[in-house]
Design a protein that fits this description.
Structural class: mainly alpha
CATH architecture: Up-down Bundle
Mean pLDDT: 81
Oligomer: single chain
Shape: elongated
Order of helices and strands: HHHHHH
Helix content: 55-70%
Largest sheet: none
Number of domains: 1
Length: 197
Amino acid sequence: PAGGLALLLGVLLWRALHGAPVTELSGDQDFQLFLQRNLEFTRKIRGDVAALQRVVCDTLQLCKEEELVLVRQDLNIAQAPLEQCHKRTFQAETCFSQIRAGLRIYHGSLATIQALLPGHTRMVETLQLDMANLSSNIQQQMEDLGLATVTYPTENQDPLPTFSSNFHHQVGGFFILANFQQFLETAYRALRHLTSL
């Protein structure tokens, strides 16, 4: 039963993190296939975000984070939490839930980027579509494993950040992409960690 698989997954993750050999999970072909596919998918999304970061650098001349740190303090740009994906107490269920919640937050905040770069709407929309697909892949896998899933309503999206000036809007867009890239790197490492169990 699916509940048994979720329990097995929890036990295996716990044992893997505490140095015990793990062979059972690597035998779950479907789970390993899911991880490999979505590692590739996450890598593609990271590449798309990096391409948007290059556009922001070329178009708006905003390239270096250290030059913008002082302005960042005036902006209310939150980083989506992923602490459940790299704590010593790693749990697949909470990590997957945090990845999905973060994808939802960044999906909405990409509207800020779209407003900044109207000539690159197609790039932003492709990225949003990929993010939605990655989120639904994770939800499907959680359901297959019998893990609890939380579905977030799409209609009451988080409010977009407001900016007091065009420059703040540009810097806000820069940091949304920088935060999203960090978020994706952590998510990627979490998925890779699961493949090595």
